[in-house]
Amino acid sequence: MKEMFDLRGKVAIITGCNTGLGQGMALALAEAGADIVGINRSNPTETALLIEKTGRKFHSVIADMSKMETTDLVIKEAVSAFGKVDILVNNAGIIRRNDAIDFTEKDWDEVMDVNLKTLFFMSQTFAKQVMKQGSAGNIINIASMLSYQGGIRVPSYTSSKSGVLGLTKALANEWAQHGINVNAIAPGYMETNNTQALRADENRSSEILGRIPAGRWGTPSDMAGPIVFLASEASRYVHGYTIAVDGGWLAR
Ligand code: NAD
């Protein structure tokens, strides 16, 4: 059974792993045996150290995931560092908060570009490489509770993450036949920079906590089991599915 979750010999690309959920997932994939290619706008020193401690290799690529041209560079760098790619985690994401009535085009475009447009073209470039290799591949997109719900004052974020859920199914339909599993994880309310404003707002924070059956905010380490499952042989017949890692939030 352990072998099904074993990622030794695999190469995993993860976007946005200098902090938060990306760092937690990069570490989990390395602990399961994968070498890691991390894509960030600045050098992720802490993540690199954590991964090297596991005995796995870490290759850093400095790139901006708001630009779809980045996707070619990422795959080329990964292949030149490790010779191939096996796993892609589309984690980089941003959020902008404002009333819908005042929401600007800039806050719309910036969020859609990173969270949805580049995620699609990154997946496309990765899939072309995997098909060229003639090997299997695993794509894991990071969705959100706002893939299911509307949220408040985050219209571009909700639109992008609802798009991620649909796109995960669309890509699975086309690429399952090529041995590529496309799935997603929808994290609940997790303690990272992304939720700092929410946690600082006493009312919103206690409202949120009161609805989580597990009785606590999630942490990056709560992503470890689900990401290794979706990156491994253990999920080989799982296609187009989004797993909520939310302490039971959606069950309420
Ligand atoms: P975070 O802000 O700590 O991390 C976001 C990551 O994306 C960082 O590494 C950041 O550097 C990277 N990033 C953003 N824009 C980038 C760009 N243009 N180029 C390269 N990298 C870029 O937040 P997080 O909570 O760890 O978020 C990770 C993912 O999880 C995001 O997609 C987020 O939407 C999603 N998510 C988070 C929560 C939560 O509660 N924290 C809940 C649901 C979904």
Automatic annotation (TrEMBL):
<dbReference type="InterPro" id="IPR011286">
    <property type="entry name" value="2-deoxy-D-gluc_3_DH"/>
</dbReference>
<dbReference type="InterPro" id="IPR036291">
    <property type="entry name" value="NAD(P)-bd_dom_sf"/>
</dbReference>
<protein>
    <submittedName>
        <fullName>2-dehydro-3-deoxy-D-gluconate 5-dehydrogenase KduD</fullName>
        <ecNumber>1.1.1.127</ecNumber>
    </submittedName>
</protein>
<comment type="similarity">
    <text>Belongs to the short-chain dehydrogenases/reductases (SDR) family.</text>
</comment>
<dbReference type="GO" id="GO:0047001">
    <property type="term" value="F:2-dehydro-3-deoxy-D-gluconate 5-dehydrogenase activity"/>
</dbReference>
<keyword id="KW-0560">Oxidoreductase</keyword>
<dbReference type="InterPro" id="IPR020904">
    <property type="entry name" value="Sc_DH/Rdtase_CS"/>
</dbReference>
<dbReference type="Pfam" id="PF13561">
    <property type="entry name" value="adh_short_C2"/>
</dbReference>
<dbReference type="InterPro" id="IPR002347">
    <property type="entry name" value="SDR_fam"/>
</dbReference>
